[in-house]
Each structure stands twice: as structure tokens, then as C-alpha cells.
Amino acid sequence: MDIGIKYCGGCNPRYDRTSIVVRLEKDFPGLQITSAAALQLYDIVVFLKGCMRPCIKEEDYPARIAQMIVSCEADYLHLYQVIYSSKKGGRK
Amino acid sequence: MMMTGEQYIESIRKLDLKVYLFGERLKNVVDNPILRPSLNSVKATYDYAAKPEHEDLMTTTSHLTGEKINRFTNIHQSTDDLIKKVKMQRLLGQKTASCFQRCVGMDAFNAVYSTTYEVDEAYGTSYHNNFLEFIKKVQKEDWTVDGAMTDPKGDRSLPPHKQADPDLFLRVVERRLDGVVVKGAKMHQTGITNSHEVLVMPTIAMGPDDKDYAISFSVPTDSEGVFIIVGRQSCDTRKLEGGDIDVGNSEYGGMEGVTIFDNVFVPNDRIFLNGETDFAGMMVERFAGYHRQSYGGCKVGVGDVLIGAAALSAEYAGVERASHVKDKLIEMTHLNETLFACGVSCSCEGHPTKSGAYMIDLLLANVCKQNVTRFPYEIVRLAEDIAGGLMVTAPSEQDFKNEALAPYLEKYLQGVCGVSIENRMRVLRLIENLSLGTAAVGYRTESMHGAGSPQAQRIMIARQGNINGKKALAKHIAKISE
């Protein structure tokens, strides 16, 4: 499973966005995690936004399974659940 | 092609800059310990553009070439561009806690771009084409450019052509078929030793008699006849002591210098204004407007660091739960975010110029800068209040390393248990650095006078404030019909 990471610009993030990637790498050692390139297809694209402002053009980053938006640390739980269930084949 | 930070450093190293510091010409500008932190700050504008977690803010697409460029070389094409500019500046203020020097060139690009378009429209000149070729080169080479506006000005009551010394405003002293020769000086040049080019603009609105002074151009910073005398900063020689605590910020800093143009040749294709005195005021006003917007970003980022440092100093002293400390941190945050709100709002209310490039709202940008002349001073006052007197009375880094003295200092300067004396000193020295050390040049006095002194903003606020319109509103409500 490949994960594309798309960061917002990070002008004044309310949390450490890179910590989400660190947690993903720790919780899912086999995942292929790369920086998302525009118009390239990934299984899951994770938008790491520093706040609630919609500054990323999400349509430029398509995904086979899901586009996941992380705007705060608490959003990690949902991201974890989606990746976990996708790896188990429980989610298409 | 965007440069990496290391490529930027090496590109500056290749320049033959004529730089004087403490009365002597520097053989090695790049590695000079007084200047190196300022170079590191500009380098950060390249480093952060290469980071995936910031590239959306730090880079954009050139409307001229379609290529990816550093945002510092961008011509703003929308209000979104203007907003992102301010956010980028806040980010870099947070990361460097100093002036990162590249804004002045960006603001000059945008002022000259739109003004040359309108000069050509009025006079049939080709300055805009000259500038287009120049800015394409800037974007392609990813240059840092110093925007040079402030002349020495001599007797402020006199226009350029009436000064006792005609060189007190930079002027054309020779017109040739292939270009012009200029003479004069530009004061307070932020980042000049870290720039590839210097983009010169007039400093005030001018009348017909000031034709030789209405000149805008760009030349390489190592051009024949250009030399720089570095301005000294409070506590600057601490950087020669070899430690990394007493300097407060060992990695980053800012620099300014007097830049002399001693009969410098400017080729025709690098001239962007040459005698059209009626457009000097437009160029000045637009540059000042953009630069007053800039301060609603960069100073806010530095303020974020200062607020954080004040909070840490309170934590290390065991007073973080005191209600008055909490309230002071709230006040500092309130002031800082008010500055940011002004920077963002003058961007949101921006509008297209005839060239298509976007301009900020002048009234709100001047309100922004007027607040910047005040709020950082109050933020500093509150930071000093929280930090306590030790910020300025603590012994030197060397004393803490002295085996005989260290046990006493560690015994008597201890704050809360579990926090090292060294860390306590580091944060106090950072506050000192921002409040009255080298970084205070950028955070305090530059907040006062950079992008125009307070009265300059008040003149603009008076012009833009529409007092007659407000009188009409009052008359309507009060039912006054005269």
C-alpha cells in the first residue's frame, strides 16, 4: 500500500505535522510513504494541514482508496483506522 | 532552477563584494562571524523552499514562465498570493527569530513591475520589458535582490536638486548611448552583503527639477564602484567570543549597511525609470505599501519566538501559573495576532493594478505598519517583565565554564528543579538578543523606522482615511442637512 503525503504550507501550524508521518512509520512499518506529487495516483493520500483552513487543492491529489484530511493530532486515530482496515482488506 | 541553501551560499561566495567592517575591507565576507548569521537567515529562505512540509507556502508557479519558483521572486497574481506572502514571512520569522532580508527585494520587484507598466503606457518607454527580462532572470537564477530605496536625504526640508551636496540623493551624473552612470548612496540596506543584485528606486515623490534623481535600475552587488560599509549592531562583538549562549541566537541574524554607488555604470537594459519624475511617487508608494504589509508577517513570526521564550523563562523560574504572568502572555499574543490580522487584511483587500499584478490595500497596510511601530515595543516590555532582571545582569558564558565559579553560579542561579542553569541562561539570552541585542535592530528599531517612520504612515492614513466621507455619515445620522 502506498501513501502520498501532501503538506499544507505550514504557515502557523497548530501541531507538529511531521509527527503524524513519524507515527505512521512506527505503526505501519511496511507502508510505502512518499511526498505526494500532483495528479499522481496513490492508495491513500494524507493531507497534513496545520489548521482548518482549506488551502490545499485536494482535487490535484487523487487516491484509489481514500483522501484523508488531518487537521489536528486527534485526527490521527481516524487515519489509523482507515489504513488498518484497508490493509486488512475490510475497506475498498 | 531553484537553488538549495548550500548552492546559495556558494553563489554569494563567488561574488567580488567590496565590504568594510570595523574600518577594514573583508577578505572573506561569507565566513565572517559577525555577518554569517545574517547569511544563514537568507539561506533559510532557500532551505525551507525545499522542504515538503513548507513548499506550498515557500514556492509558487511563475506567471511569466510557468516554472516553479521561490515565492520571494514572485509577482503577486491574486489576493491569495498576497496572503501567502504574509504567511511565508511569519513562518520564516518563527524559524529564524530575525530579519531574513529577502522581503525587501520581493517588495521592490512588485512595485517596479506595476509602475514600469504604467510609465510605458504614459511615455512609450520600454522599462517594463527591461524589467520583465530582469525578473525572469531573477526567477530562473533564484537570486536574492536587495531593494534599495532610502537616500541619505541631507536637509529634509529641501528637495533633491536643492541639497548643498547634490549626491545626498542618488542621481544620474552621466548619460551615455549605452546607459547611465550614477552616484550616491543608499542607507540601511538590509541584506546587501547577502544579495546578488541591488535594485535601486527613488526615495520620495519628485518634481520636474529632480529629473536626474528619478532613476530606478538594477546592478550586480559586486559592480565596479559599489561598496558596502556594514552597520554595527548592539552586542555584535559577542559573536567573536566563540560561545553560543551569550549571543542569544547563534545561528541566525540580520545585517544592514551603507551602500555607496561611486560612479556606477548601468546599462540601458537594466534601467526601469529614468527621468519620469511624475512616476517616482507611485514607485515609492507601492514599494512602501508592500513593505508595510510585510511587517505584518515577519515581525509576527519573530514575536511568536519572543512570546515562547518569555513563557519558557516563566516556566524555568516557577512562575508560569501566576495569574499575572498568564495575563501578560495573553496580552503579548493579542498584540502579535493583531499585527498578523492587519497583514492578512490588507492582503485580502488587495486589487489588481493595470499590469495585472496585485497590490495590497494601502490604508490597511499603513495601519498595519503603524501598529508595528508600537506593538513589538510593548511585547518586548512584557517579555522583559516576565524574564526578570537576570536577563541583563547574568554573568557571561565564560564564567559558567570557570571551574571555580561554576558551582556558585549553579547554586545561586538555580530556578525550578530539573531545569539546567544552562537552559535557563539560553532562554534569557534569547530574550535579551531580541529585546536589546543584535536582533533588536530588526525587532524594535526596524519596526519603528523600516518601511517608513511612523509619521509616513500617518500621512498615508490621513490621505486614505476619507474624513469627509465620515463627516457625511455623521451628518446623516444627526439629521444635519447643510
Describe the model.
The complex is a heterodimer of chains A (92) and B (482). Chain A is α/β, with parallel strands linked by helices and 92 residues long. Helices cover 25% and strands 27% of the residues of chain A. Chain A contains 2 helices and 4 strands, in the order βαβββα. A 4-stranded parallel beta sheet of chain A has the order 2-1-3-4, with helices on one face. Chain A is globular. Chain A starts with a strand and ends in a 5-residue tail after the last helix. The mean pLDDT of chain A is 92. By secondary structure, chain B is α+β, with helices and mostly antiparallel strands. Chain B is 48% helix and 13% strand. The mean pLDDT of chain B is 97. Chains A and B meet through loops of A and α3 and α4 of B.
Considering the chains and any ligands shown, give keywords for the structure.
heterodimer; A: 92 residues; alpha/beta; B: 482 residues; 6-stranded mixed sheet; 4-stranded mixed sheet; 48% helix
Give the assembly state of these chains.
heterodimer
DSSP E strands of chain B, number: 14
Q: How are helices and strands ordered from N to C of chain A?
A: EHEEEH
β-strand percent of chain A reads 25-35%
List low-pLDDT spans of chain A. none
Largest sheet of chain B: 6 strands, mixed
Number of helices of chain B: 17
Q: Which structural class matches the secondary elements of chain A?
A: alpha/beta
Query: From the alpha-carbon coordinates, what is the Rg of chain B to the nearest angstrom?
Result: 24 Å
Q: What is this structure, in a nutshell?
A:
The complex is a heterodimer of chains A (92) and B (482). Chain A is of the alpha/beta class. Chain A is 25% helix and 27% strand.
Question: How are the SSEs ordered, and which strands pair?
Answer:
The complex is a heterodimer of chains A (about 90) and B (about 475).
Chain A: E1 2-7, H1 17-27, E2 32-35, E3 42-48, E4 63-70, H2 76-87
Parallel strand pairs in A: 1-2, 1-3, 3-4
Chain B: H1 5-13, E1 19-21, E2 24-25, H2 36-47, H3 55-58, E3 59-61, E4 68-70, H4 79-96, H5 103-123, H6 127-141, E5 145-148, E6 171-176, E7 179-186, E8 197-200, E9 215-220, E10 226-230, E11 257-267, E12 271-274, H7 280-317, H8 323-348, E13 351-352, E14 358-359, H9 362-372, H10 375-387, H11 390-393, H12 397-401, H13 406-412, H14 421-436, H15 440-449, H16 454-464, H17 467-478
Parallel strand pairs in B: 1-10, 5-8
Antiparallel strand pairs in B: 1-2, 3-4, 6-7, 7-11, 8-9, 9-12, 10-11, 13-14
Helix pairs in contact in B: 1-2, 4-7, 4-8, 5-6, 5-7, 7-8, 7-9, 7-10, 7-14, 8-9, 8-10, 9-16, 10-14, 14-15
